[in-house]
Amino acid sequence: MTFTLIARSIIIYCIVLFLLRIMGKRQIGEMQPYEFVITLIIADLATVPMSDTALPLMHGIIPLLTLVCVHYVFTFIERKSVALRKILNGKPIILIDPAGVNYNNLKLCNMNFNDLQESLRTAGYFNLDEILYAIIQTNGTLTVLPKAEFAPLTASSIGKSIEPSSLPIIMVAEGKLMEENTKLAQIDEKFLLNNLKDYGVKKIKDILLLTLNSEGKVYMQKYNSKAVILDINYHGEW
């Protein structure tokens, strides 16, 4: 009996994990309402065949597969029909506009002023007079457009031009060379060691973490050492 429970639990776990992976990588807070409902039902259905050995395993698997098919049908409908998309997901609602708080929309979202204030603080805004628009999205998150005088300062807003950013990739993690990334950057272990020898690096396994961007900027931390930022003679593309 114990072995049967363990085996059923492992099988159901693997199936649910696989199904959630093919459904997408959204976090709970980013899900649309129908996605959240399907996820809750899957979680509930998965527990029954794990513990009830009298229930045939397929009677637990078939409902799970059915729900994933329902998810794909809804996703397809959502892409093809704007009208049905509004039914499934709803639509964004403006809670704050230039005239102030829209109280009717606030009630429509079943929110009070404390809820609104908490959501604004989470978004990084503490004063209502800083906000031009606040919109609650269909997944329940609040997005804020601040007034111009309270908007974060950027290079373009002060007439400055800056070099485009480049994405750093991990070259070494926990003393292991990431061969896939070194191939992408078209470098090898010898190149790294030659550029890092002046920083006391003799072996790759001495490095806890090392990232490199296409402009040659390196973030490196050795075991039991502080992280350092340095430049090496490298300019590549990926």
Molecular structure report:
- With 238 residues, this protein is of the alpha+beta class.
- The protein has eight helices and nine strands.
- It has helices at 2-23, 33-51, 57-80, 82-89, 103-108, 113-122, 179-185, 189-196, and strands at 93-97, 100-101, 131-136, 142-146, 169-173, 176-177, 207-212, 217-222, 228-231.
- The chain has a five-stranded antiparallel β-sheet with strand order 6-5-7-8-9. The chain has a four-stranded antiparallel β-sheet with strand order 2-1-3-4.
- β5 and β6 form a beta hairpin.
- The model has no long low-confidence stretch (mean pLDDT 85).
Question: Would you identify the regions where 5 or more consecutive residues have pLDDT less than 50?
Answer: none
Query: How much is the radius of gyration in Å?
Result: 26 Å
Please tally the helical runs, counting DSSP H or I stretches of 4 or more residues.
8
Let me know the largest β-sheet.
Answer: 5 strands, antiparallel
| Approximate shape | flat
| Proportion of helical residues | 40-55%
Walk across the major sheet and give the strand order. 6-5-7-8-9
Total number of strands: 9
β-sheet strand percentage: 15-25%
Q: Label the structural class.
A: alpha+beta
Termini separation comes to: 54 Å
